[in-house]
Each structure stands twice: as structure tokens, then as C-alpha cells.
Design goal:
The chain folds into two domains: 1-64 and 210-235 and 295-431, no CATH class; 68-209 and 236-294, Spore Coat Polysaccharide Biosynthesis Protein SpsA, Chain A, CATH 3.90.550.10. It contains 14 helices and seven strands. The protein has helices at residues 11-27, 39-58, 96-104, 126-133, 152-161, 182-192, 211-232, 248-253, 264-275, 295-320, 327-357, 364-383, 396-405, 409-422, and strands at residues 83-89, 113-120, 140-145, 168-172, 197-204, 244-247, 279-289. A seven-stranded mixed β-sheet has the order 3-2-1-4-6-5-7, with helices on both faces. Helix 4 (126-133) links the parallel strand 2 and strand 3 (140-145). Helix 2 packs parallel to helix 12, helix 7 (211-232) packs across helix 12 and helix 7 packs across helix 13.
Length: 437
């Protein structure tokens, strides 16, 4: 079933209603007699806690790792489908030389791979460096867009889709690092499992740069554990922007990339879900990327992620709750939505009401369980054997630091939701800066 990209009608109203529901859930129990006032929080704690534990513990039930030994013993171009590698680059002078070097070293039949770098209105040295670097590289193409063309990364990728003809599309960020044999491993593996789209685990290349970078390295491992657990339980898998391998015909069927959202990957994931597209995630090989090295950059990035995450739920809600999606996936989506988006807002309202009424917060057990499950996912992810950069050792102090770090979502989610509810819709693609270190 084809699902076109939606442009976000009535997001402001939907967000306001969501805030009202969260306020009601947080407020109502405070006006109920003891001990009944604790029942809603305890019920949610038990149900969502069981869901979270099942997801995290289920990750060990399957490997889903394309091994080097599985690479066919031939580079005969007739054996491999054609692949287009797409990179949207805006003001990437710090990493563009390293990127071109890595792309030129990909092992794949030369007549079956084409590499497209979209210069998305760069005002630094990126255009000059690109022309210089690809001068003698026959399978590279530069696509130039004006900075005012709009659409963010989605607009840049859609511009490239008009020119490419490959059977598969491999999408990378400008700071991406990867194994030379990555396509040789991934494409036969995706065909073997009948996946139409595949997401690589994201690994942080600079975990030792700062405590924030260390926590992000653990967070990416945690995210992969949760994604794999959801997948193995029949739940929902999501794309993560960098390291996406997508069948071109499926991408066209779902309408390309949505220029009306700030997170193209999350939006496309839901259209794949509604269309019945098979999407998987692999632990190894990973795609490596830079962590955000400072707190202000982290908050700017997470505000965009939070806004895009809410946008997709509000845009596609009628489809997500319909019988077009099976009951297991609907249950998975509901639990994930409550834990990721509703819990931070309910917790904030709960604390504010407790202060005003001089009573005890009622949802702290659910928050405690959410942080506990996150800690378990941190530990399982960092204990796993993995290719790519070494993951931080899950020592008690390191785990405690990572759990405290996750508290930033309890600030970002309420703030972004409040802004979306009170102010007119805006589309601001906050670019993550890449230093090249």
C-alpha cells in the first residue's frame, strides 16, 4: 500500500490535545483518596516495565549480523545489483576530504556503484574541495543546490532521487566511517532476509573526547539493543538517518523523503511501517559518526529529534491505530510512545502538582523503572562484542553517568511539546556540526 508523505496538518492542535491528556493523567490521581491515588502509576509501571524488560532481554535471541565469510567469492558485476550512495553535505569542509577517500575505497563492482554528493548550498570551502577531490574519480557526481531551495536534508535527497537509477540506495552522513566491504556484506544479507530496508547500528567514533561523547556512545549501543529487541518481538524498527540501505522501488512507492518534517528518517520509517515494508537492523558492521562534543550542540540536536518524533506520530496517527497494522506492532508503538514522549511530560506535571498541593509525586515508580530499563540496555549494549570503535566499559560509575545523562530527555521533550502547542508550525533543520577530529 502506498502512503504519501504528509505535510503535518493541525500539528499544533494535536500537540495541545496531547498536552491536555498528559496533564489530566498527571493531575487526576492527586485528587483521589489514598491508596487509590497510586493505582494508575503502579499499573503503568507494571505494564510498561514488563514491556521494556522484554524488549531489552529479547535482543540476545538473534544475531542478524552479516559476516565477512558470507561475502560471495566473486565480484562479477552480474551477481550484484546496482547501488547509488547518497550523501547530503552542507558546510562540511572539515570532513569532506575524509569522506571522499572512504567512498572511493568502497569494495564493489565499479560498474554497479555510483556515488552522489549533494552540495546543499555550502558557503564554506566544501564546493571547492569537492571539485578538487573528485577530479579523477569517474563514478562520483556532484549535485549542487542553492541554499534557499529549502526542504533540508529531505530536499537534498529528493533532488538526488531525480538523477539516480540504482536498484538500492545507501544513505550516509558526511562524517560517516565504515568498512570497505560494507556493501558486499549488506546487500546479499538484505536479500537473504527479504528486507527492503536496512539500518546499521550507529557507533560513536570519538567516545573519549568528552563525557558527553562517552554517554552518546553508550546511548547508540542502547538504542541498537532496543531496536533489535523490538524487531525480534515483532515490533517496529526505525531508520536512523546515517547508514540506511533502502530498495529504490520501495522508496519510490512510499513517496521519497518528506520535506515537511525535520526528521526524514523517522517519517520514512512510519510510511514503511504503514506500507508493510520489511525493515531490519544489524549490529555489525556499524556506521561510525561523530558525537556532539558540547552540551549546547547536544540540546539543539535533541530538540530537532524530539520535534520530528512527535510530528510523525501526530501526522500518521489514523494509520497507526488502524487495523492496517497488526496488534503486536500497535502495542509496541503505544508503549514506546508513552515511555519516550508521554512519560517526561506526565512526570513534570506530576512534580509541579505535588509541589502545589504539598503531596507526594505519584509517577516516580514509572520513571524509576524507565531509567532502570535504560541502564540495563546500556549494560547489555556495551557488553556485546562489536566491530568499530570500542564501546565504553559498563562500570558502575559509567552506567550511573549514562543514566543521569538520559535525564536530558525529561527536559527536552516537555519544552519542545509546549513550543509545538503554543507557537505556529515551523520547519527548522538544525544542522549537526562536524569537526573532523
Amino acid at each position: 500500500m502506498k502512503i504519501i508523505a504528509l505535510n503535518g496538518e493541525n500539528r499544533r492542535v494535536k500537540t495541545f490535545l496531547f498536552l491536555c491528556i498528559c496533564f489530566t493523567l498527571a493531575c487526576a490521581p492527586h485528587f483521589v483518596e489514598f491508596p487509590q491515588r497510586f493505582y494508575p502509576g503502579l499499573a503503568m509501571t507494571i505494564l510498561l516495565g514488563m514491556y521494556g524488560l522484554r524488549v531489552v532481554l529479547r535482543d540476545g535471541e538473534g544475531d542478524y549480523v552479516p559476516l565477512v565469510e558470507d561475502i560471495p567469492n566473486t565480484l562479477n558485476s552480474e551477481f550484484y545489483p546496482s547501488v547509488d550512495v547518497l550523501v547530503a553535505a552542507r558546510d562540511e569542509e572539515n570532513v569532506i576530504e575524509r569522506l571522499v577517500t572512504r567512498l572511493s575505497n568502497i569494495q564493489y563492482p565499479k560498474d554497479k556503484i555510483s556515488i552522489f554528493i549533494i552540495d546543499d548550498g555550502s558557503i564554506d570551502q566544501t564546493p571547492y574541495l569537492l571539485k578538487k577531490l573528485i577530479k579523477n574519480l569517474s563514478n562520483f557526481t556532484i549535485i549542487t543546490r542553492n541554499r534557499s531551495d529549502g526542504g533540508g536534508k529531505s530536499g537534498a535527497l529528493n533532488c538526488a532521487l531525480k538523477q539516480i537509477k540504482g536498484e538500492w540506495v545507501f544513505i550516509l552522513d558526511a562524517d560517516a566511517a565504515f568498512k570497505k566491504d560494507i556493501l558486499l556484506r549488506l546487500i546479499p544479507f538484505a536479500n537473504k532476509l527479504n528486507w527492503s530496508a536496512l539500518q546499521l547500528r550507529k557507533a560513536v567514533i570519538n567516545p573519549n573526547q568528552s563525557p558527553i561523547a562517552c554517554c552518546q556512545a553508550m546511548e547508540m549501543a542502547m538504542d541498537a539493543v532496543i531496536q533489535r529487541g523490538r524487531m525480534l518481538g515483532g515490533g517496529v524498527v526505525e531508520l536512523r538517518g546515517n547508514g540506511q540501505l533502502i530498495n529504490r522501488s520501495i522508496l519510490d512507492l512510499c513517496g521519497g523523503f518528506n520535506e515537511g518534517t525535520v526528521t526524514d528518517d523517522l517519517d520514512l520509517s512510519f510510511r514503511f511501517l504503514i506500507s508493510g515494508v520489511s525493515l531490519g537492523i544489524v549490529w555489525d558492521p556499524p556506521v561510525e559518526e561523530e558525537a556532539v562534543s558540547n552540551f549546547s550542540g547536544l540540546i539543539r540536536q535533541r530538540k530537532r529529534w524530539a520535534e520530528g518524533g512527535l510530528q510523525r506520530f501526530f501526522d500518521y496517527w489514523p494509520f497507526l491505530t488502524s487495523s492496517k497494522i497488526n496488534l503486536i506492532k500497535r502495542h509496541d508503538l503505544a508503549c514506546f510512545f508513552i515511555l519516550q514522549y508521554a512519560l517526561p511530560i506526565i512526570s513534570l506535571f506530576d512534580i509541579v502538582i505535588a509541589i502545589i498541593t504539598r503531596s507526594q509525586p505519584l509517577y516516580w515508580p514509572l520513571s524509576f523503572i524507565a531509567f532502570g530499563v535504560s541502564g540495563l540496555a546500556f549494560w547489555r549494549g556495551c557488553c556485546k562484542e562489536s566491530e568499530g570503535p570500542s564501546l565504553p566499559a559498563p562500570k558502575p560509575l559509567t552506567l550511573l553517568m549514562a543514566i543521569i545523562y538520559m535525564g536530558h530527555w525529561f527536559v527536552v521533550i516537555p519544552w519542545v511539546t509546549l513550543r509545538m502547542a503554543l507557537f505556529p508550525k515551523r520547519l527548522l533543520w538544525a544542522k549537526t556540526l562536524h569537526s573532523g577530529t
